[in-house]
Amino acid sequence: MLKRKLGNTENIVSAVGIGAMSFTNFYGKTDEVASHKILSKALDLDINHIDTSNVYGMGQSEKVIGTFLAKQGKQKQSLFQIATKASISKNIDTGEREFNNSESHLRNELDNSLKRLGLECVDLFYIHRRDNRLEIEEVVEILKKFVNEGKIKHFGFSEIAPSSLERAEKISHVGAVQNEYSLSVRSPELGLLQATKKNNTSLVAFSPLGRGLLTDKPPSITKAQSLEFLKVNPRFQKENLNYNINITNNFRDYASDLNTSAASLAIAWILEQGDNIIAIPGTRSIEHLIEHAQGGSLKLTKQQLIEIENILPVGWCHGDRYSIDQWHGPERFC
Questions:
Q1: Domain boundaries, the chain
Q2: Which of 11, 61, 232, 264 lies most in the core, judged by the most C-beta atoms within 10 Å?
Q3: Model pLDDT for residues 26-41, shown as the tens digit of each residue
Q4: Global model pTM greater than 0.90
Q5: Is 191 left (phi over 0), alpha (psi -120 to 50) or beta?
Q6: Residue 59 near residue 19 (C-beta atoms within 8 A)
Q7: Is CATH 3.20.20.100 what the domain over 3-211+263-299 is classified as, yes or no?
Q8: How far apart are CA 277 and CA 298, in angstroms?
Q9: What one-character-per-residue DSSP string does 143-211 give?
Q10: Which of 130, 300, 319, 306 is nearest to 210 (CA)?
Q11: Count of alpha carbons within 13 Å of 267, Cβ hemisphere only?
Q12: Which residues are known catalytic residues?
């Protein structure tokens, strides 16, 4: 497994990690036993980076990781480099989603996450969404307190603009910025990829398989309509999904010609876009986890990269990556 530094630190993580939203029912039914099997196999495959959040299953994902770690005894702290997040909450009166970057909220959520994980410290703590009531410089100062208190080793931000990263970096080094990035979502190349490279910040790519479009078995319209997130996502509406599956069939054929899976090829491609990139695909399947790991060991030639770009050029995907409601929170910068 290819290994990479986390930011400008000495922390070394696997270039392919696990997005632990899949330890909830977000993409289909699962349970603790199945998730524990994934974590156990991850150790066998030399995958040591796990990405979770306090809101994934309202703590379910963290609890599952915590119960697995509890079985490992004294070595539990060193088995994985664990990242979690906070700042998304619901308004008590309206029930609507809102974002809170205040110290009291972040501290309380972080403490609860540590309890669920059974840890005294996490390796990486993200601001899941920016709270526009606070300047990012003020939020960085809060995060520095958590580092000094030994609650977190490093901090990062999820889905922020390059300009926000530059502001934060003037206060303290940002270990990682997390954003959707794949052959179907190329927007990070319009500033975020460049800014993270400049600042020695890891770019942690979530949904590197295009939420299933870049796999050997993309979701059908029936499957997409059964999932809360995908059923309202523009790319998975019937007409767009049909277009997108037809276009990516050529990518699946090319992966087959190379004697690899589409998922492995998609992950190998994204890791070639910069040595600061870490991919965190999620899965409920051991078979798929193995494919992900293989992507972390697959070296592509210049000609193969050209062929992939010819098959899936920038802008090929039909439909926006988020619906109007789903766009509430991420910083749009292009």
A1: 3-211+263-299
A2: 61
A3: 877 889 999 999 999 9
A4: yes
A5: left
A6: no
A7: yes
A8: 15
A9: HHHHHHTTSEEEEEEES--HHHHHHHHTTS---EEEEE-BTTB-GGGGTHHHHHHHTT-EEEEESTTGG
A10: 319
A11: 34
A12: 56
